[in-house]
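Data card: per-record layout.
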Amino acid sequence: MVRDGWRVAGALAAGGILTVAGAAHAEGPAVAIIGATVFDATGAAPHLANVLIKDGRIADVGPNVKAPRGAVVISAKGKALLPGFFDVHTHWTPGGKPNISPEIANAYIAAGVTTVNDFHQQPESFAPRRQWIGTLASPHVNFVARMSTPGGHGADWADTATTKWVNTPQAARVEVKALVPYKPDFIKAFTDGWRYGASADNTSMDEGTLSALVDEAHRNGIKVLTHTVTVERGQIAARAKVDIIAHSLQDRELDGATIDLIKAAGTAYAPTLAVYDPAKGEGAATNPEARKRSEIKFGYALHNTKALHDAGVIVALGTDAGMPGTPHGVSTLREMELLVQAGLTPSEALIAGTANSAKALGELDDRGTIEKGKRADLVLVSGAPWTNIADVRKTDRVFVDGKLVHGPGVKLPAANSQKAMPPVKVQALIDDFEGAKERTALDTLRLNDTDGGIDRTVQVAQVIPRTASDHVLSLDARMSTKDDPNAGVIFPLTRGSVQPVDARPFKGVRFDVRGDGAYELGVNTLSGRWASEVQGGAEWRTVEVPFSALKAAAGWGGARGPWTGDDLLEVSIDGARPAGQKLWVEIDNVTFY
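The structure for this 593-residue chain is written out next.
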């Protein structure tokens, strides 16, 4: 049978549509890709060969490899077969494009990207997100834990569970150990507070802290990538033995001593040129002065990428996708084009996006080249991208673990078209503060909720006695010196706020409160944030907030759609006071009613 370029050897049943199993490792018939021009990323010249895939692995490669009986045969004459592409720096964020995990996965597999690092999630979300992604046709996703200085870059918007705050060697070691139970694939250290010239460098991680962080991570078998964007900080990263510098050093041209230092440290370099490209459109500088600064820094970024490459430093591929003007999937392909613009040959750019990235991540024994025994993560494209790098955009078929996830006849799992995991039922009791002190009655990690920036509201939330046999959450805060400072607590309804809950059986939220004035009950949903003001006083009172009383919150994070009641992620209680003032509140028995 021949259909859309497919033919089935032997007695394989006909159907015309290949359904991709949610679990990419499900066994299926062998696949034989016949007549491709193979760019194997080993350094060998492109050559005609056949590739046989069995049980998710490359079973054989060569010009004389035959398709066994029962194999699915793909005629690849005139097409190029490459290892699946890597992107070692992405953010699967609600602010990106696309912004929903299944759509992000779709964008990557459509671009031939089969392995990515996600730098955006709190460790509590790793397990449920791994479960969710296991239901999708998706690239392999490495989850990267985040560490920064108090209020520093990467911590200026995130809670301390999403980004660990450290500013001493001892703190760094303690927090790395605290991350180990979450099984992070890597750690990202935000060590540079320069913010690309937009603010003062008063939040950078010192060398002693970074060195201790890297050493402790390596003791636990975890590689470290670092956000570093200046030459001076690149020297510190190298002396600390970080595994990958995950941005461009772009404040000046690299000197020979710094290049030698980075090379001697064995530190790889992923310049994320795509996020800095002055011509990228959205997110690009628009006023003439800012545009000029952007172009100057981009020139340094291009120059330094080529200088490090020429010196023998491993250049890997990362994009910072998810940031403005840097969409998922296509930005990975754009990065290869920009590597060529920096002076690499198309073949060298392809190796950066495959074998070099795999080597930098410690995954080269498993994937990144087309060799017998390797994972069958492959992309078939039209053209010859080793001659014309733009041909990487001509994606024909993509394989993850030997399964066709993009191409003619593919039907993706239903989960790839859903905006979220299916909602689950939730118990009425959210938190009565009688269990583990850091976790809710739902066994989720309770989170502090404060304003962002370098100068942040200081708050202490702790469980204290209400009576001899009862406990409450006490929150005390000193408001930061800025407009609209905030303090509060978030109650995730599922681990990591990943899976939504269906609260339609309930009418609203009830809790006991006493405090010093007005507060806000917030409900975060997939459709945005909803809120209602509540009052606290010197004496305990029970407050009931019906869902019908919630109003769509304005601004960033505000409601983006109607209230449905079946997509709740978090409940929060927050308070705002004038800059420099104090706030106190005690909360008990938070429940749906």
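Known properties of this structure: Residues 1-19, 21-26 have pLDDT under 50 and may be disordered. The longest helix spans residues 288-310.

See the next section for split statistics.
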